[in-house]
Amino acid sequence: MNALWDEIKNKIKPALPKNSFSLWIDPISCLDNEDTIVLGCPNRFSKNWVQENYLDLIRDKFNDAGLGHVELLFKVERQKRIPALSSLPPDPDQLTLPSLPKTRGRRNLWLKSQFTFDRFIVGQSNEFAYSASKSMASGDPCNYHSLLMLANTGLGKTHLSQAIGHRILEKNPSSRIFYMTAEDFTNEMISSLRTDRIEEFKKRYRRCCDVLLLEEVHFLGGKEKIQVELGYTLDALASDNKKIIFTSALPPKDIPRMSKELTSRLTSGLVTAIADPDYNTRVQILTEKASVYNVGLSEEVIHYLAKRLKQDIRQMESALKCLKARAELIGARIDMDLAKEVVSALVSGECSITTEEIIKLVCGYYHVDREKVCSKSRKRIYASPRNIYTYLCRHHSDETLAGIGKTINRSHSTVLYSVELMEHKMKTDRNLKHQINFLSKRLGEMKK
């Protein structure tokens, strides 16, 4: 397979500028090919860039070589020589939570150093959430011990959640803080049940926790046993006046198959929402992020980006990283022309796909009636195409969540849940991922 990959690279070489080929394609190696062709990239940035810009080209060359449609998987290639852990300097971007037991490589041991209150950009859309978070972290007199922050992906709820953890540790380094996602909590509980350590699990969260930072509670929809256990844990923490901070993309009442009991517990304290940043806030965010990334931007470019990048903070960060990469790797000058080029890759233009075109494609591909997809039916034969439709609309059209929901008689919360459900399933369901990638490619062809 290594010989074939070298041949594929030779075929790709004439199709790309010399600098682009040597920078992105040439360093890639072939790691494995049992069921899936695994290509190793030198670092995470390279992996993401190749997937976003050259995936179709590479797949076409494999097809030309007679392999037909192949499944490609990109990984960051492990370095052959790894220094001993004791010789590595501490990662400046992460801080250890000293009060947690360091066992089994738990993922809840870390807070990102940049997620502090000082680094959070406050605007009209997030002012109340910021004030509430800061008040809870500072121990100001208040009559609530739990906080639920509601926001779509990429609007800062994780930043505020971790900022609370940082501030509490500053005031009391011995605080026992548990930071994790609802998925982490679920996986740990399942593991504890399988290994007959459920009592140890209960003790850890009910008696050995001063502050619980639980992210993405919408993940718990439909997980009845996990909801029951979490409910008991929350009751134990609340009775001892412990601090509890939740984040979610959906209000608990809109999370499918969320029990009334857990919904009541999640909303028993303060509930606050973070909306999309307004124009002035986007200008502040871009200015601050540009300074952090050391990207020199003119006022004209900043305001242009603020006008065009309205989705979320991650979209703004992606634009700044692209500008920085172009400037550093190929010596491009960061001006309006380059800004427009980068934005055109992130924001749909005049030839964006409509929801009408997407639903026709999905119904035709799965051979289902449009009326059934838009109905209240929960049969899998209709629910699956409906969820895929929402995912494709979210990623290939300019329509809002509410607008997408109207086309299938659903609320914006249900649409958001469907999109996140598809993103989660695609990580483990190879067949589903293949179908969505195929439909995405078809939509990409329709834009041209």
UniProtKB/TrEMBL annotation:
Q: Which residues bind ATP?
A: G154, G156, K157, T158
Sample GO molecular function, one term: ATP binding
| Annotated source species | Candidatus Desulfacyla euxinica
Name of the molecule in the record: Chromosomal replication initiator protein DnaA
Q: Which PROSITE patterns match?
A: DNAA
Q: Signal peptide position in this chain?
A: none
**Region span, Domain IV, binds dsDNA:** 328-448
Q: Where in the cell is it found?
A: Cytoplasm
